[in-house]
Amino acid sequence: MSGILAKLLRRHERNQDPTTMSATEKSALIDSLMGEAETLRQQNADYAKALSERLAGNYQLHLNERPDGTGFFYGTFRDETDSSHRVDVMPPRDIWSGDFNAEAAHPTDWVVYLDGEEVQRASSIGALSVLAAPSGE
User: What is the pLDDT of residues 78-115, one digit of tens each?
Assistant: First the structure.
């Protein structure tokens, strides 16, 4: 089961005990979960596109369209010297979709890491700056 579906199922299980649900109720829950999962997949793709456009500037940046199991959007950034750098972007807690505890995410900020070092954070994608190569490169 994908991380998104598992997360949604855990959220719904808190509200309803699946062992006491009828077959019709279970079917409706599955349909609902699948719809929510598709919505989340599309939102994640939209976030990845917006992040790429905002952070790349005139450089090459490729982010996966959905977060990895830890909840980060990740990819590679090529700077002006054509050096490749790992980029990880932690979304705010309210849109977190990782497989582990969302408490690790910042409550309100997008946090950007370049080669494992935090380089910026902002409360919206629009407030993030174009990435630059780490100093000393």
Answer: 877 788 889 888 888 888 777 777 777 888 899 999 89
For residue 104, give the 3-state DSSP assignment: helix
Q: Report the run of H or E that residue 13 belongs to, with start and end.
A: helix 3-15
Reported pTM: 0.64
- Reading the block at residue 28, the tokens are 């409706």
Measured CA to CA, the distance from residue 16 to residue 135 in angstroms comes to: 52
Helix spans in 16-102 (H): 23-56
Number of residues written out for the chain: 137
- CA–CA distance, 86 with 46 (Å, rounded to integer): 20
Handedness of CA 16, 22, 26, 32 (dihedral sign): negative
8-state DSSP, 134: P
As given in the structure block, the two tokens for residue 112 are: 């950007």
- Residue 137 pLDDT level (bands cut at 50, 70, 90): very low
